[in-house]
Write a structure and sequence with these properties.
This is ACR protein. Pfam families: AMMECR1 (PF01871). InterPro entries: AMMECR1, AMMECR1_dom_sf, AMMECR1_domain, AMMECR1_N, AmmeMemoSam_A. By secondary structure, this protein is of the alpha+beta class. It folds into 2 domains: 114 residues, Hypothetical protein ph0010, domain 1 (Glycoprotein, Type 4 Pilin, 2-Layer Sandwich); 71 residues, 2-Layer Sandwich (Dna Ligase, domain 1), CATH 3.30.1490.150. 30% of the residues lie in helices and 24% in strands. It is built from 5 helices and 8 strands; from the N terminus they run H-H-E-E-H-E-E-H-E-E-H-E-E. A hairpin with a 2-residue loop joins strand 1 and strand 2. The N and C termini lie far apart (35 Å).
Length: 196
């Protein structure tokens, strides 16, 4: 089964995914039962398995962000499910409320296939990231953490980017291991206001 290539999605397809995320959130507040997307309305590319994250902000403050790095289900369904999860299941935040909707922004990020980056030290990784503002996944043993490329907007220095990602994973800021697995990735993303 082929996997959605984020490079192949056009603006129209990304706009459709943003609409799917809006519908997922709207369905929670409407009187009827939430209705998942009708798959026959979407292009073949949006029906291929895809990995994505859905990020929600209210007045510029993070309100939820959940996703996956493994493509298991059709991208359109993955966006729908991750939008609902980001709104109501991200344990870092209280569930989204109706009075937040006017100030809600939704960002859908479709992940390109992560690539392993071979580095011999944390400093070598920092040097690489100084010239390559990509998404980053660090994993060692059972612990793993991911930053989307958009995180560079709030953490523009490579050493801070890596340090905060390690803290997110549950390691201390100075932790490094010879078994650390480093992966980088890019995304194709679209952002817009919630409206209905």
């Amino acid at each position: 089964m082929s996997v959605t290539s984020c490079q192949s999605l056009n603006k129209g397809e990304l706009t459709q995914l943003l609409d799917v995320a809006r519908d997922a959130i709207h369905g929670h507040f409407s009187s009827g039962c939430p209705q998942p997307p009708q798959l026959d309305l979407y292009t073949r590319r949006l029906l291929q398995p895809g990995a994505c994250f859905v990020t929600l902000t209210v007045n510029g403050q993070l309100q939820g962000c959940l996703g996956t790095i493994i493509a298991r289900s059709p991208l359109v369904m993955e966006v729908y499910n991750r939008a609902r999860a980001s709104a109501y299941q991200d344990r870092r935040f209280m569930p989204l409320t109706e009075d937040q909707l006017d100030d809600l922004q939704i960002e859908v990020s479709v992940l390109c296939q992560p690539e392993t980056l071979t580095v011999s030290s944390e400093q070598e990784l920092i040097n690489y990231l100084g010239n390559n503002k990509v998404g980053l996944i660090l994993s060692d043993g059972h612990q793993q953490a991911l930053f989307l490329p958009q995180v560079w907007q709030s953490l523009p220095k490579a050493e801070h980017f890596v340090r905060q990602l390690k803290l997110k994973a549950g390691w201390n800021a100075s932790y490094w291991s010879p078994t650390m697995k480093v992966q980088t990735f890019t995304v194709n993303s679209i952002k817009g206001k919630y409206y209905f």
